[in-house]
Amino acid sequence: MTKKLLYHFLYVSASLGWATLAYGQVTVAIEGNVTFQTILGWGGNTYSWILNGWNGWTNDRVYEIAFNELGTTHLRMVTEFESWELENDDNDPNHFNWTYFQSRFQQTDNSARLVRSDFDMMHKIANTLEKRLIIGIWNVPNWMVSDPDKKDHRHLPYRMHAEFAESVAAYLLWARDRRGIHVPEIILANEPDGTYLEYSPEALRDLIKIVGAKFKREGITTKIVAPDLASPHFDPDLWVTTLLKDSVAASFLSAISYHTYYAEGGPDQWNKKFARIAELAATRRLPVYYTEIGATPWDIPNTTWPWAFACAQMWHNILTHGNANLGFQWALLGRDSAINSDASHNPIFYLLGQFFWHIPAGAVRIAAQSDHSDLLVSAFQHRGNNSAQFVFINRTATALQVAAHLQNLNLTALQSYRTSANESHVRVFDFRMVKRQIQFAIPALAVMTFTGTVIAETDGVSPERQPQPE
Questions:
Q1: Cα 121–155–292 angle (5° rounding)?
Q2: Dihedrals φ, ψ of 128, to 5°?
């Protein structure tokens, strides 16, 4: 079955509620002593403009659901940075004209309202909800670019890099000193391949160096996440290598980041590239972030089960092939949202829950292998709370009978939870381990997560840990 036909089948079968009773047999091996990356948490994207109530976003309940009930630990906010310094504050990039920046909060036009919503949303995320905040810059004001009439593939010339650095520093200093908001990480260019702004790898490297030096002079501790490209279609060996070969640029980075788009071939399209990104990041011992996790083709609505199910497979792939330490769903609130403006849930909410609700920050991914290419399995262990978690994704149109064998991981019982086109997130059965094996059935096109308590006993094999970022 081609990927396009598979997506069509998913869409039709989910709509009609088809199920199949035929079973295939699958064997899974889970090895507790082979470990990979540490999970830093679970993230999603949000816009700040929704605070203004535009497009019907007036229900306060949406924030509680998306940011707390989902188990979100990290939030990436789309800034309206192009409205921050709408005109040049002055002609000296080494001087902050704070009178100008203060004026942005006294004006009443829409761009000024967007500025206020940025700082209000950052305050809500970091200080009220106490989530770890990362912000991204999508665009810059027209006076900074050489081609202000263009809507995309705009160019920030080198002569404006110092002005850009000053503007970003002013934004972060205002957040810190006037609003008490700590911004740990920033993305200087969301999708620098041209969604709004277009850079070469060398230009992005040089911009990072100029901004990073400005941060250092101003006492700003915010670190930079890059390259944040739309897809591994944009060659990691070119982009990531250019950034990491320069020791100065690399010193300002806290993580290597990518998005998951241009995957018209299906969620597996970029698996080899995901692995390569992880290899490159490990050369500088940097964690890997996927700051926008979504699915293509775009003609499948984000409010549907097939889109959500494709996203779940993408999450599996960035975790198991890409050794991702942190992922951010596109998006929790705003466009393509998991939660709608009326606080109703889209299917992606429950599929995210299979990861967010059960796998704690600090868990380490352990080795797991299925002998069926369409039964995806990932496994995790948190030594601090003696817990283990296994996530199974059956992407076949057939129910599967699974025998999972555990080694160097001693559990007596497991709880299980399931999400499918007809089930949001249901507690299924408790399973007892028999000779370190569990057997269970997983329906077609479904996700099941198992959780259990680890007993301190192994098979006597020393742990084999893969190289990890610090």
A1: 40
A2: -80, -50
Tokens 């996440």 sit on residue: 225
How far apart CA 431 and CA 421 sit, in angstroms, is 23
Label the pairing between strands 132-136 and 74-78: parallel
321: left (phi over 0), alpha (psi -120 to 50) or beta: alpha
CA 363/CA 153 separation, integer angstroms: 40
Which of the four CATH numbers 3.40.50.1580, 2.60.40.1180, 2.60.40.10, 2.60.120.280 does domain 3-37+365-465 have?
2.60.40.1180
Q: Distance between CA 263 and CA 272 in Å, rounded?
A: 13
The answer to whether the beta carbons of residues 188 and 106 sit under 8 Å apart is no
Torsional sign, CA 201, 206, 212, 215 = negative
Instruction: Note the pTM of the prediction, 2 decimals.
Output: 0.92
Whole-angstrom distance, CA of residue 67 vs CA of residue 39: 18
pLDDT in tens, 266-299: 999 999 999 999 999 999 999 999 999 998 777 7
